[in-house]
Amino acid sequence: MGPTASGKTEAALMIARRLPVEIISVDSAQVYRGMDIGTAKPDTQTLRETPHHLIDILDPTERFSAADFCERARELMGEITAARRVPLLVGGTMLYFKALQEGLSDLPAADPAIRLVIDGMAREVGWPALHEELARLDPETAERLDPHDAQRIQRALEVIHATDRPLSELIRERAPAGLPYRVVAASLEPSERRVLHERIAERFESMLELGLIGEVRELRNRFALDPDLPSMRCVGYRQTWDYLDGRLSLRELRERGVAATRQLAKRQLTWLRPLRSVVRFDSLSANAGVQVLEHFRRALEESNNGPLRE
To answer: Is residue 271 predicted with pLDDT exceeding 70?
Structure first.
């Protein structure tokens, strides 16, 4: 686990080349076909040499929930372990990790009438204003959400209106589902936030140079997209959409894209902070990937009662 731009993919590839693992992507954006540059998806050659599960499985017009992820991930984990290999889950969508390990709470079904009211309010005052209202009613949930994350803000407010209780409270009451596996967790986290911010800015500039604007333009030509779809609300894509619609200049696209990515990293670190069973490694260390590799190698050797051969 770890925030964006912390080197998770590089570490995972190092591990996959040396240990008997198969990678399962834990990324809510990399599931979409055609969204390659803005999601920092491994390139075609890398995916050919080291296959990743749950990458390029949906068109960007489709939706993919935490429940969908859990269902597919559990199925894959069963197949991988049956083949006497080890599932290696890698990514930055912390909600997916949490849902997989702890299970999903029994929340009320979607209520079209409530959603209609919330959507009407959003059209009048905007999603950031509704995020402020959510912060008043359920500060714990609001802290984890981007002020423009319409889908999740809508769901959190819907649950409050349907149950008169905050979403965070209902989630805490869930019955632990548990995984039928020994879980060994590691996170790559920066010792200096400033350096992570520099990396984020450099990576977003690289995405623009690689053709992020053209990628979004092509997606709009190929698919019946709208800016409220989960795929187009991903960091970088939402800002590029506004640029293509003439609402942002190129300078503003850079500034807002970098700012949104920094906010994403902050939320990811917020998710990670309370976790107790995670071994943390400094993502800025020159040999961070090697340290994570050795952490997992020791865990596998303990399980196998002996050293592993690469």
So the answer is: yes
**Is residue 3 a contact partner of residue 69, using CB atoms and an 8 Å limit?**
no
Distance CA 72, CA 67 (A): 9
d(CA 302, CA 136): 47
230 secondary structure, DSSP code: G
- Residue 93 DSSP label: -
Distance from C-alpha of 14 to C-alpha of 21, rounded to nearest angstrom: 11
pTM for this structure?
0.82
Nearest of 283, 285, 84, 53 to residue 186 by alpha carbon = 283
Cα separation, 238 vs 221, in Å, equals 16
Average pLDDT for residues 182-198, to the nearest whole number?
96
Which amino acid appears at position 104 of this protein? L
Answer whether 22's CB lies under 8 Å from 53's CB: yes
Per residue in 231-240, pLDDT tens? 999 999 999 9
Instruction: State the Cα–Cα distance between residues 262 and 209, nearest whole angstrom.
Output: 19
Amino acid identity at 54: L
In three-state secondary structure terms, 2 is coil
Residue 195, by phi and psi: left (phi above 0), alpha (psi -120 to 50) or beta?
alpha
In which band, very low, low, confident or very high, does the pLDDT at 104 lie, cut at 50, 70 and 90?
Answer: confident
> Can you tell me the mean pLDDT for 95-107?
83
Q: Which two tokens stand for residue 241?
A: 């959409």
End-to-end Cα distance, the chain: 24
The structure tokens 């894959």 sit at 76
3 state DSSP class of 290: helix
Coil, helix or strand for 187?
Answer: strand
